[in-house]
Design goal:
heterodimer, A: 98 residues, mainly alpha, 71% helix, 0% strand, B: 600 residues, two-stranded antiparallel sheet
């Protein structure tokens, strides 16, 4: 971690990751943490491309686009499962469990 | 343009234009087609007259069609001694048959289409006969093959017609391979594709000669390719009369006559011609002795005569073969038309065991049947005599093997025997059919038959006077050799007459009425049609499909891999618990531990 900005974004990534693993009740909180992870990764990539000498670096923009698609899919899945199961409690999403 | 070629174009144009008549304005268009064929016949006599007057051979190169550097191919017509004589004969026979068809198939709703098919067939035959190079002959060859298929399959809702038409097409197609090989060889080796023929060295000429012989064997129903001709009797009688007696099946022999110089360059090919012809002649005559279907007797008789024509080619006498083609057309077409009239009048009864005593009921038709049978057997000074006797004389005085001579003489005996059998069952005796109301001999069916009867009596003399042979035949021979054909024919006739007179007094057979083993052609059909196909399909399924495709390609490679993976997956699936929550927590815990431990 050469700069404090880098440290900040790395810590935010870790916090979001912990939030993703230790969510309890609602699927939406997991999705929010996922979005937060994507956002911090995007900021880290942008800082990296600013500090380096490569001129065109399209990776941040690609990651942003893909994370937007991912958010859309996550929300659609949330709504679909909420409509069929009539609950958003995570304990009830155990259809594939054997 | 040459005036003779313009005169030739007249029959072609008349026939072509009859296909494009305005149908909607006509009540019965097929009458116009009969008239067109009649006009074409009379206009084809003009080139014949020119030829007989001064031996004028006309060739015209019309269109520069395929521009290959080695052998440019033109669309060109030639009227040499073979085609200028064959055209009037084929048009005469076609005219008579079409007039017969007007009455014979008057109850058919698709009679217009039938006439169109007949006209297209006659056109293709004209293209074949007047072709000046082998490629144009091939065009006509294929055309007559296709029209034969469509005409045999006229009643296409019958499964036996479908099978018969398929047999015709498949056997002809197998033979066309020979023609294609011969064409390719001739082009590659810079031999000319002209119809006058070229000579070549014996080893160079062997392969194209064999190719042409294969093509002729398939088209002219020689032994090995013969089953399609009796099966082709599934078509209507005019089809049998036009295609499978006078015109189409002689296309193979005609090809050999045209390319005879090439074949004679190779002694092996000539010998093959001779033996194949003699074998076909004998075997077909043997089969004709035991048939009970009237049209099949005449079909096997056609095959036997085609074998005789092939024998004549094998004797290096192509003009005798051509003369036999010309005379055979008349009496064979007449035999088929008589058979058609008899069958039609007996309410579609084709079995000769159910006919009899027709000499009182249908006198003119049975007289023409007897005239045809006599001409076929080589009765002296009828038309068949001039060609058949000449061939047998040439056979006797040539330096060839004895086997073919013996086979041909025995076939001649059998010819008169099966003719006599047919006449005995159909014309003589007392009727064995159920009583009918009337057996009218309509004038419209009789006129063509009588015309062909005149032809089959007179044509032999007329043609042989005007066609001088280029191979001088042997004129002097001992009287026994000269009379050999007559002697064997007379022997056959005496045997037949003896059997006829003693047959009513013999005991009826107690062993059953199946024909004895050597006469059964079903063994041939079983081996060639059933067993060969079954073996091929069995090999293709076991070797190609099961072994190569499914085992070597699929099973030992990808499918084995997939199978093993699925085995393992099935074994391991029960160990999954899918607790994503706990897995994620363990991952987070492990990462925190790593971070903590790496902090020094």
């Amino acid at each position: 971690m050469s700069t404090p900005t880098n440290l900040m974004f790395t810590c935010s990534f870790i916090i979001f990751a912990i939030g993703l693993t230790f969510h309890h009740t609602h699927l939406l909180s997991a999705l929010l943490c996922l979005e937060g992870m994507m956002l911090s990764v995007f900021m880290l990539l942008t800082m990296w491309s600013l500090n380096s000498n490569t001129s065109s670096f399209i990776l941040p923009l690609t990651v942003l686009t893909l994370s937007a698609c991912e958010a859309g899919i996550g929300l659609a899945l949330l709504i679909a499962s909420a409509r069929t199961h009539n609950t958003t409690n995570l304990k009830n999403l155990n259809l594939l469990q054997c | 343009m040459n005036p003779a070629i313009m005169l030739f174009m007249l029959p072609l144009t008349i026939m072509l234009s009859s296909l494009f008549l305005p149908y909607s304005k006509m009540n019965k268009p097929f009458h116009a087609k009969v008239l067109a064929t009649k006009l074409a016949f009379f206009s084809s006599l003009l080139p014949l007259a020119f030829f007989l007057y001064d031996g004028l051979v006309v060739t015209s190169h019309e269109v520069y069609w395929l521009a290959f550097n080695v052998c440019p191919i033109h669309i060109s017509f030639t009227l040499d001694k073979y085609s200028v004589l064959f055209l009037p004969i084929s048009l005469f026979v076609a005219w008579s048959i079409m007039e017969f068809t007007v009455k014979y198939m008057e109850s058919d709703p698709k009679i217009d289409t039938f006439f169109r098919y007949l006209i297209i067939f006659t056109l293709m035959m004209m293209v074949l006969v007047t072709a000046e190079n082998v490629v144009q002959l091939f065009i006509g060859w294929e055309g007559v093959g296709i029209m034969s298929y469509m005409l045999i399959n006229w009643w296409s809702y019958r499964s036996t017609s479908n099978k018969a038409a398929l047999q015709a097409v498949i056997y002809n197609r197998l033979a066309d391979v020979g023609l294609a090989i011969a064409l390719a060889w001739m082009v590659v080796n810079n031999l000319s594709l002209d119809i006058q023929g070229v000579r070549a060295s014996p080893d160079l000429a062997l392969i194209p000669a064999l190719g042409f012989i294969l093509a002729a064997a398939g088209k002219s129903a020689q032994f090995g390719f013969h089953p399609w001709l009796p099966a082709a009797m599934e078509g209507p009688t005019p089809v049998s009369a036009l295609l499978h007696s006078s015109t189409m099946v002689v296309a193979g022999v005609f090809l050999l006559i045209r390319t005879s110089k090439l074949i004679y360059s190779s002694e092996t090919a000539t010998m093959i011609c001779l033996l194949l012809g003699a074998l076909t002649s004998l075997l077909a005559a043997t089969c004709a002795l035991t048939q009970n279907d009237m049209k099949k007797i005449i079909a096997y008789s056609t095959t036997s005569q085609l074998g005789l024509m092939m024998t004549a080619i094998g004797l290096k006498q192509p003009e005798l073969a051509f003369m036999h083609i010309a005379t055979h057309a008349f009496f064979k077409a007449m035999l088929f038309l008589c058979a058609g009239a008899i069958i039609h009048n007996l309410n579609n009864e084709q079995d000769i065991r159910k006919m009899g005593g027709l000499k009182k009921a249908m006198p003119i038709t049975s007289s023409c049947l007897i005239i045809g049978a006599l001409a076929l057997s080589g009765m002296p000074f009828m038309s068949g005599f001039y060609s058949k006797d000449a061939i047998i004389e040439a056979l006797n005085t040539s330096d060839i093997n004895f086997f073919s001579l013996a086979m041909t003489l025995i076939a001649t005996t059998f010819t008169v025997l099966y003719n006599l059998r047919m006449i005995y069952f159909v014309v003589l005796g007392s009727p064995r059919m159920p009583t009918l109301s009337a057996l009218p001999e309509a004038r419209q069916t009789l006129n063509p038959i009588l015309r062909l009867a005149v032809g089959s009596i007179a044509a032999g003399l007329l043609i042989s006077i005007n066609m001088l042979p280029s191979n001088i035949p042997q004129m002097t021979m001992p009287p026994e050799i000269k009379l050999a054909a007559l002697i064997v024919t007379a022997l056959g006739f005496l045997t037949g007459a003896a059997l006829m007179s003693t047959a009513p007094t013999l005991q009826p057979s107690t062993k059953g009425t199946q024909s004895p083993l050597p006469f059964k052609m079903t063994h041939f059909y079983f081996i060639i049609h059933h067993t060969l196909s079954t073996i091929t399909l069995w090999i293709s399924q076991k070797l190609s499909n099961h072994l190569t495709d499914q085992t070597h390609y699929e099973a030992t490679g990808p499918k084995m891999l997939a199978y093993l993976q699925i085995l393992m997956t099935k074994a391991l699936t029960s160990l999954h618990k899918s607790r994503i929550n706990s897995y994620l927590k363990i991952i987070a815990l492990a990462m925190m531990l790593i971070l903590l431990l790496s902090l020094p």
